[in-house]
Amino acid sequence: MIFTKDNLRLGLALGLLGPLLGLIVVYFIKFPSYTFKEFLDYFMHDNRMITSIGSLSLLANAILFTVYVNTHRDQTAKGIFIVTLVYGIGILVLKVFN
Predict the structure, then answer these.
(1) Which ranges constitute the DSSP H helices of the chain?
(2) Residue 73 — φ and ψ, nearest 5°?
């Protein structure tokens, strides 16, 4: 199975998908009355939302990272960590320049 591999590319791919899935979950749970476009616009332009929703969406990567570290698949965990840092820096930049 693909999730049993220890591969940097797999970690990068999972790291990219995790926050996107986390963002979609937050959308369906907290903002079902908004269209997805309205939700993204609200997310991008409200500093409080950038912090809270950004953190919640990165929680998916924290869970993935923990699973891969605990199962000793360090290359995959490294990929997830790298992408998590990039997302975190992106959220910080978005918050500062908003």
Answers:
(1) 8-30, 36-45, 47-70, 74-96
(2) -105, 75
57 three-state secondary structure = helix
Q: Are the CB atoms for 39 and 27 separated by under 8 Å?
A: yes
Cβ neighbours of 22 (radius 10 Å) = 22
Residue-level pLDDT at 2: 67
Side chain identity at 11, as an amino acid letter?
A: G
Answer yes or no: are the C-beta atoms of 80 and 65 closer than 8 Å: yes
pLDDT of the residue at 10: 94
Q: What is the pTM of this model?
A: 0.85
- The gap between the terminal CA atoms of the chain, to the nearest Å, is 42
Distance (Å) of CA 86 to CA 29, 64, 72: 25, 16, 23
